[in-house]
Structures are given as C-alpha cells and as structure tokens.
C-alpha cells in the first residue's frame, strides 16, 4: 500500500515530464522551425515582390519549401535526437507536411515524434548504425506519413475551417473566443504560432488571433512598465509575454487586464475593421502578435497577396487604422485601464510584474 502511494506521485511526475516534452517543448521547437522557414520565406518573398527584386522572391521560395524538414528537425532537436536520427527527420518532415496538406504542420508534430523516438531506440545499438538508424527513422516516419498524415491534415483543415466559418457567421462572439484563447496560448509556455499554423487560422479568425496575441504582449508591456521600464517594454512588446508566467503563477490577477483587453479587441477586429490575416504562410503569423512585428507583417503580406489575386481592390487608410488600433493603441489603453482598476481593488500590487531584464 505504501509502495503504491509513493509510486503514484512519481508516475504522475513522469507523465507530466513526457507531456511537457512532447506537447510543449516539441511544439515550441516546431514553431521555431516553421518561423525559420515558411514565415521568414514569406517575408523575404513579399519584400522581393514589393521591391522588384526577383532574387529575394527566389530565396524566399527556397525557405518556404523547407518548412516540413525544418519543423521535423526542430522537433528532433527538442527531443535530443542523436545526429543520424536528427538528419533523417528532414525527409520525414517533408513527407508529413506534403501528405498532410493544409494540416501539414500538425501532421509533422504528431508523426515526427514517434519516428524520432523509434530512431532513438535503435541508435548506436548495432555495428551498422549508419544504415540501421536512418532506415528505421525514415521507414517509420514515411509509413506513418502515408498511413496517417492525410487523415490528420483533413481533420486539422476541417477544424480550422469550422472556426473560420463560425467567425464569419458570428464575428462578435467568435472574435472574443478566438482572441482570448489564442492570446492565452501565446502567454502560456505553448506555441500559439504552431496552433494557428496547425489549424490554418486565417481570414477573420486569423485577425482575431492577431488581436488576442497583441493584447497580451502590448498589454503586459504597458502595465508592467513601472516595474520593468524600457527593457521590459521591448522584451514583452516585441519579444514575448511568456516572460510573465512565473509572476502569473504567484499572482494570477495580473493576467486579468491583458485578457480582458483581448476580449474587447477581438470583436473590434472582426466586426469593426474586418481585420483579416491572409498571410501566404498559412496562419503561423496569426499566433505571433507583435513578436518582431511578425503579426503585422503577416497582415500586410496578406493584403498584398489579396490585391495581387484580385480579392482586394487596394490597401486603404481604414486598413492601416485598424492595424494600428487593434495591434498597438487599443491593447495599451485597455490593459492600462483594466490594470488601474485592479490595482485600486488591491488585486495587483507594485512589484507583482517585475522581470529580470
């Protein structure tokens, strides 16, 4: 009896460790791989198109074509894969991303992990490791890709389309839901960019996601300015609001202001400005907020793409006003007002959001 009671907490801790490794660390790494390939490639291609430099468009195309391998290798890196396993994951990522279609990133996340772990099991176990390890990794990954990637891709696409359709039908309520949930995901130690990419959150839903992420980042940057000054403003406003997670654990009330701000800016984005994220990168920028201004560059890339495809007559002053208000001015003003009320209630105190920056 005593043995079971002692073993249970250990088992739970082990389970939490694996969950963190596979669904937090791996997802965060995947988002970095996606950023370094598809997203950066889209930005470079857009710059090339706008500046009339075909070489930049070509370089951007090279980067975008490597999204699958980059994501899989990033996942393998997070799982501490040996070199032969890590390098073999490039082909696995390409297969999963290609066969997964619109849900390719989710297929890569779900299938690169078991391929990697199977490769790790046989790594350095035989005299012919240079053959066995790559063949095992590639064989397992390719088999999983052919068997499961199309179904995973279809489910992810269907779910993402459901969210997008619901946002079009109910822009007010879904604007709130998408904005709050994606914004919360951005601040938590999971990847909002990977989530948005996995489900292809574009259109109005993508605009609401951008609003939620900006509310968290700009919101925390502004309301913690008295504690963190300019360093904190830049670290959170152009970096990540995830820096506040340790302080949120100590006092969850500090999270209320940015979250309420996202609940307001989400429907403003969808109902008033009809802010859409149609970035050719397929949704990853929807979950980036103001991180390196990637969210705003993504919205602009979407405008350019829509104009080129005849879906939009041109970029209007209203478009720019909506982007500026939803991404910067409203999050700052709303979060500041909500935080002021919370401080008067005594729920938030000086020093609660202090960072080591």
What would you note in describing this structure?
The chain is mainly alpha-helical and 357 residues long. It has 2 domains: 9-161, no CATH class; 170-357, no CATH class. 78% of the residues lie in helices and 0% in strands. The protein has 14 helices and no strands. It has helices at residues 2-51, 54-65, 67-78, 83-99, 104-122, 129-169, 171-187, 192-198, 203-223, 225-239, 245-250, 256-272, 294-308, 317-345. It is globular, with a radius of gyration of 22 Å. The termini are far apart. The mean pLDDT is 90.
Topology at a glance:
Blueprint: H1 2-51, H2 54-65, H3 67-78, H4 83-99, H5 104-122, H6 129-169, H7 171-187, H8 192-198, H9 203-223, H10 225-239, H11 245-250, H12 256-272, H13 294-308, H14 317-345
């Amino acid at each position: 009896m005593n043995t079971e009671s002692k073993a249970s907490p250990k088992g739970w801790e082990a389970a939490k460790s694996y969950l963190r490794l596979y669904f937090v660390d791996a997802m965060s790494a995947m988002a970095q791989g996606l950023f370094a390939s598809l997203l950066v490639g889209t930005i470079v291609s857009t710059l090339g198109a706008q500046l009339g430099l075909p070489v930049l468009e070509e370089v951007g195309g090279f980067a975008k074509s490597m999204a699958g391998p980059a994501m899989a290798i990033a996942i393998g890196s997070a799982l501490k894969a040996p070199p032969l396993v890590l390098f073999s994951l490039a082909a696995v990522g390409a297969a999963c991303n290609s066969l997964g279609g619109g849900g390719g990133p989710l297929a890569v996340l779900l299938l690169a992990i078991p391929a990697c772990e199977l490769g790790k099991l046989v790594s350095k176990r035989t005299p012919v490791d240079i053959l066995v390890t790559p063949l095992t990794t590639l064989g397992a990954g390719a088999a999983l890709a052919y068997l499961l990637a199309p179904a995973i891709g279809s489910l992810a696409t269907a779910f993402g389309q459901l969210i997008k359709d619901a946002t079009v039908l109910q822009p007010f309520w879904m604007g709130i839901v998408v904005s709050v949930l994606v914004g919360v995901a951005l601040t938590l130690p999971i990847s909002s960019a990977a989530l948005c990419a996995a489900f292809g959150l574009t259109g109005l839903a993508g605009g609401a996601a951008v609003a939620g992420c900006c509310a968290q980042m700009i919101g925390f940057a502004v309301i913690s300015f008295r504690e963190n000054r300019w360093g904190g403003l830049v670290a959170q406003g152009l970096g990540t609001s995830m820096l506040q997670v340790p302080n949120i654990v100590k006092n969850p009330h500090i999270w209320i202001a940015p979250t309420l701000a996202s609940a307001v800016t989400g429907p403003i984005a969808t109902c008033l400005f009809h802010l859409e994220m149609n970035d050719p990168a397929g949704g990853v920028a929807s979950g980036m907020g103001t991180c390196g201004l990637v969210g705003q560059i993504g919205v602009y890339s979407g405008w350019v793409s829509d104009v080129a495809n005849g879906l939009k007559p041109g970029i209007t002053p209203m478009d720019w006003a909506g982007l500026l208000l939803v991404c910067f001015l409203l999050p700052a003003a709303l979060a500041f007002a909500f935080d002021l009320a919370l401080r008067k209630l005594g729920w938030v105190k000086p020093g609660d959001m202090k960072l080591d920056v």
